[in-house]
Amino acid sequence: MTEYFNEIKKIQYEGSDSKDDFSFKFYNPEQIVLGKTMKEHLPFAMAWWHNLCNCGTDIFGTGTADKTFGAVPGTMEHARAKVDVGFEMMEKLGIEYFCFHDADLVPEAADIKETNRRLDEITDYILEKMKETGIKCMWGTANLTNNPRYMSGAASSNSADVFCFAAAQVKKTLDLTVKLGGKGYVFWGGREGYETLLNTDVKFEQENIANLMRMAVEYGRKIGFTGDFYIEPKPKEPMKHQYDFDAATAIGFLRQYGLDKDFKLNIEANHATLAGHTFQHDLRISAINGMLGSIDANQGDLFLGWDTDHFSSDVYETTLCMYEVLKAGGLTGGLNFDAKQRRQSNTKEDMFLAFILAMDTFALGLLKAAKIIEDGRIDNFIKEKYKSYENGIGAEIVAKKVKLEALSAYAENLGAPALPGSGRQEMLESILNTILFG
């Protein structure tokens, strides 16, 4: 088979002194970090939609990158070309997983039966490539956003016919995910939200969303899907308010509707910051609730109010991300590069350079997060901060052995309590800087 990137060889680890742009400076897949190889800690996945479909189009202009790959867009020939290019890239980058939407794989036909036939055809071809290369499917999801029928949402639509069409897409994408051996299935908010409460029945819409998710779980288990279902929190854009606003909101929704036994969260960095949180925050909230599943690895632009999906370059952010992942014991899913090159980075070479940047950034974040844990000062400080709950009245509070009246009496005998110990934020930030740059 003819290589599309024939001028680019397999990307190798050369170390931080290397001046070769087409080499890894920090991502050394077989390096042992805290008892596991780097590639085990970092199960990277290629996002089919951005890498093989996005050509740099934005709300102000048409695309700048050629993603035709020598075929005519909108044809099955083009769909097969994307498979060839995607697997060539993953092999050369050492990426072992991919993620997909149904709409990424084939052009949608006017008849859903024909669309499904096309999906069967292309996934047969993908399976051949998977067997040849050993590359695996991380997760699948249905695109319930782009088509005009979803202008008022999918499961939350006021149209029962649209709800049924969304259900048909979910069913087929679950079939494909099982066929490809996917580890997970994702519901991402798309247009599940509202612009104004003047025309919205929030309770009705949320119950319908939960109903579709419940049906998906039932069907998935019936056809042998044993992986996790995921919600991907998203606060806004394209809707003014989306129902899965952040990790805490999504967890509350899952528990309210009895879905928490089958679902975890797929946390996206850019979505967390759009919600007014840090990436670390939504990871921590997911982890302490036993729902940290998978990650869409990207970053946003804090000066822009929408989902810009940059390839990760911020080592502070990836260090704190990997610190949360390590403390949580790892991911059931992986690190999916839901990211796109900047509009000006429009060449074939830029496709590789973007992945090299992000893979190195997460590898460096992993190394630094491991050092934070091995150093121990931050963890020890946190433990010491709450020491007053280890004995005496504090221990009784934690053990739930004391009532409000007893606490009130204790406070009366105490007089004025001393101020809590210093939070030492600046000292801890200095420790972090020392570990990152010392």
From TrEMBL:
Homotetramer. Mg(2+) 1 binds at residues 232, 268, 296, 338. The active site is at residues 101, 104. The keyword Metal-binding applies. Its cofactor is Mg(2+). It catalyses: alpha-D-xylose = alpha-D-xylulofuranose. Belongs to the xylose isomerase family. It comes from Sinanaerobacter chloroacetimidivorans. The gene is xylA. It comes from the Bacteria. This is Xylose isomerase.
